[in-house]
Structures are given as structure tokens and as C-alpha cells.
Specification:
A hairpin with a 4-residue loop joins strand 7 and strand 8. A six-stranded mixed sheet has the order 1-2-3-4-5-6, covered by helices on one side. A six-stranded mixed sheet has the order 7-8-9-10-13-14. A two-stranded antiparallel sheet has the order 11-12. It is built from nine helices and 14 strands. By secondary structure, it is of the alpha/beta class. Helix 8 crosses helix 9. The structure holds zinc ion (ZN) and fe (iii) ion. The site of fe (iii) ion has 6 residues, from helix 2.
Length: 255
């Protein structure tokens, strides 16, 4: 059976992504255990690995409980705050899930946290809290320059790559992005679509990297309209992408 990818909602806004083939299943960022365990049971799936992107509780909080029942490989960053990781990976490494014939490349994406990583291949990006649809993670630990460099790595992936983020933030992100780039037609279209989807409680994910490059202001810090908006917000910002990113990110923090 081909690979299916299912969003398991948890907490207010989290999605725990399940990658499965009708028999085996990988869980990404299980912040809680009850919902993914119920999913495995109701679909008759065997857990074969966990993938963890960063140490925040809403991404790893369910891991101990799940691992107590299913001791599986746990791929994640090198970080003492994630003791569950038994397959530590860093930039350039691969996470291997033979049960799903899956090989995922690892990128280090510091910014939201210092040790955040993402997993990707030519079809999918498991973005954690680094990249959201039309947004990006808050800078809890990193600098604007670090996050700008992390987002540049993701922006270099092919257009068709599907973006699986860990939160349903799209509609709020669109409201902010429209304040930055009110005249961006791709953004206007995404805001309209996300509004319709959320009205009926539907998920807005995955998006694609092509769509994000066209509408996500945090991937557009070299665009004239975004540079202008950053300089109106914080005069003297200039054109440096990291400075533009910093101004837009600080604006979003208080939006
Ligand atoms: Zn987080
Ligand atoms: Fe999170």
C-alpha cells in the first residue's frame, strides 16, 4: 500500500502526523499519547518509529507513554532535553524507516529552539515548529539571523514538497501576512481558502513549498513589498534579509 499521511489533532492546535502503509506507522511529534494510540488501534497499525523535531512538551509529551508500550527507534536532535531519542541525528544525516521504505534527510533549523531539526525528502517536509503555513515559529531560543538561515534551507526545497507543520495556525497567520503584503494575490487566495476550510473545521494542511514561497512573508524577506513593510514598521531596518525577518517577526509577536 502506498504511504498515507494522516493528521491526528491534539491539544488546541497541534497535529501529530501519522505516516502509515496499512500495516506500519510512524508518529511525528507526539505531544500526547491518547489520540495517537487510539489511532493505531482503530486502524490496526503497528508503531515502528517516532520522529521528534524539538524538545517542547506539545511535541514530545506523549513519547514516554507510547514508548512504554511500543519500544521503537526514536529519531530526533541531539539534546539532553529529549532523553527519549535513541537515534540522534544532525544536519546531513538520514532517518531510516525500512518498514515504510522511507529515508528522510535531516536539516538543522535553529531559531524556534537551538536544536530544532526537520525531516524531508522530495515529497514531504515534516517542519515541526520551524515553518508554519504562512508563518514560522516564534524565536524562543534563536536569533533572527539563525531563523532566517534555517528558513532559507527550507525555501531551497522543490516547489512540490508538501509541508506538514505541527500546528493549525494558517488563518491567524494569513491575517498577519495580509498586514505585511495586502496586495499579494497568492496570499489573498490562500487567506480565502483557509477561511473557507476553517469555517467547516477542516484542516488547512499540508500546503506546498511553492505555495509558501509565494505567500508566506517569512520566506519573502527579499521581496520589495516585504522589505518596505519591515521598514515602515521599524524605520532603519534596511534590506538585509535577517534584519527584515527580525522586524517582521517582532511585529507578528505583538500582532
Ligand atoms: Zn515548539
Ligand atoms: Fe509546538
Amino acid at each position: 500500500m502506498p504511504l498515507s499521511i494522516t493528521a491526528i489533532p491534539a491539544f488546541e492546535t497541534n497535529y501529530i502526523w501519522a505516516l502509515h502503509n496499512g500495516r506500519d506507522c510512524v508518529l511525528v511529534d507526539p505531544g500526547s499519547s491518547a489520540e495517537p494510540m487510539a489511532f493505531l488501534q482503530s486502524h490496526g497499525l503497528t508503531l515502528c518509529a517516532l520522529l521528534l523535531t524539538h524538545h517542547h512538551h506539545d511535541h514530545i509529551g506523549g513519547a514516554d507513554d507510547i514508548l512504554a508500550r511500543h519500544p521503537v527507534p526514536v529519531w530526533g536532535p541531539v539534546d539532553p532535553r529529549i532523553p527519549q531519542v535513541n537515534r540522534p541525528v544532525s544536519e546531513g544525516d538520514q532517518a531510516l524507516v525500512p518498514e515504510l521504505e522511507l529515508q528522510l534527510d535531516v536539516l538543522e533549523t535553529p531559531g524556534h529552539t537551538t536544536t530544532h531539526i526537520v525531516f524531508h525528502n522530495d515529497e514531504m517536509l515534516l517542519a515541526g515548529d520551524t515553518l508554519f503555513s504562512i508563518g514560522c515559529g516564534r524565536l524562543f531560543e534563536g536569533t533572527p539571523a539563525q531563523m532566517q538561515a534555517s528558513l532559507d534551507k527550507l525555501a531551497a526545497l522543490p516547489d512540490q514538497v508538501k509541508v506538514y507543520c505541527a500546528h493549525e495556525y494558517t488563518l491567524d497567520n494569513c491575517r498577519f501576512a495580509l498586514a505585511v503584503e495586502p496586495d499579494n494575490p497568492a496570499l489573498q487566495a490562500r487567506a480565502e481558502q483557509a477561511g473557507q476550510l476553517r469555517k467547516s473545521s477542516h484542516i488547512t494542511l499540508p500546503s506546498t513549498l511553492g505555495e509558501e514561497r509565494a505567500a508566506n512573508p517569512f520566506l519573502r524577506t527579499r521581496e520589495a513589498d516585504v522589505i518596505d513593510a519591515a521598514n515602515r514598521r521599524e524605520p532603519g531596518t534596511g534590506q538585509d534579509p535577517a534584519a527584515v525577518f527580525g522586524a517582521i517577526r517582532r511585529w507578528k509577536d505583538t500582532f
